[in-house]
Amino acid sequence: xxxxxxxxxxxxxxxxxxxxxxxxEHGAPPTQSASxxxxxxxxxxxLASPALPVGGFSYSEGLxxxxxxxxxxxxxxxxxxxxxxxxxxxxxxxxxVVAQAFTAWRDGDMDRVHRLxxxxxxxxxxxxxxxxxxxxxxxxxxxxxxxxxxxxxGGEPDPRVRQLATLQPSPTWPxxxxxxxxxxxxxVREALLxxxxxxxxxxxxxxxxxxxxxxxxGQRVLAALCAQIPAAVEQALNLHDDDRQAHSPMLAxxxxxxxxxxxxxxxS
Length: 268
Description:
By secondary structure, the protein is mainly α.
């Protein structure tokens, strides 16, 4: 997998005078982040938490097959593998879809939501990847329904949750996450940071079990990935429809091989 050369960037949640979503028409990026309330911050942390009952921890996204094939066997190799996956796969695909679906949910543009959901399904390069995005999407729908029931002071349930649930053949993880994040009131950039950190934490946990790595090694891998998350988010925010892509041939091959791998810890 080719290394992606990136520069770590910092982000802020301080108040600005610009609307971060005003420029986002059909995937166009915002320029700055707005203020982040305590409520929004806590809910983004919740969405990024491994405790969110969507099963993200049960997938290795090809990493276990990479270990089995001998491509990843050390801390350094695991770190580089996941950094490449962050830059070459997540930033150009899932993060970009979340950014664009976030705006579509805000604007009530269900045609665009449907198109983005279909794009995600059409670009899954293995049945394992397709199963993952559908299963996690459906699980998040159920979580959103439960949240609506629990929110006794919130008035009528958000009708968009029902619209999400009716996406055919099923809602996908990025499109579902975009609605959950949009409901928090957080700016889109912070929503993407939440998704990226949640993915990072799950993948580091997968590396700890599959390689395997010790806890200190896992923290070093996590630190290296966290340093690159802001740049990955900026890349995703600047992608338009024609720039989105899901083309990671080696990852797709390994995912397909993992489906029939004799011994495995992670879901297939």
